[in-house]
Amino acid sequence: MITSHSSEELRGWLAGRLPQDWFTEEPTVTIDRDEIVIVGRIDEPKTADGIAPDEKAAAVAGRIKQFRVDTRDARIRIARELEHATARKVAWGVVCADTTRIFTSLAAPVMTRLRQPERQILDTLVDSGVARSRSDALVWAVRLVGQNADAWLGDLRTAMEEVNRLRDQGPDIG
Question: What pLDDT was estimated at residue 5?
């Protein structure tokens, strides 16, 4: 069983478990409380130089689909092992050329209590057609914050990883 669920430990487990010919480089592993997302780069399709952008996009889409189909049974088997070891769902994705595709990903419900000013913001997004529902408006707002606060959120995640690393080095109080 993987006990600490650190990204280093999971990457090591995956390095030993994933077939060597799946990805062209070490996959990225993103972990949160609910899910582990594994995204690896795959070979680009062989195409002639100077092909039309639509033709290249179709070749990339076909390459991604081929990988998804060819590896499905093994990915499911590995995901089940990892889900059992970590008590988290596992999602897979690939990067091919400049396209990133996540095959399946958990959509976790989030419960929150909002006061009227916050609800009015969500309702404005719904009424203006930016979002279909308050739930979609909240997703939109979270994505917007994520895009505009990337550096700060990255620093915060790095600091949290350091805290977890130091916590793991401390005594086991059972």
Answer: 55
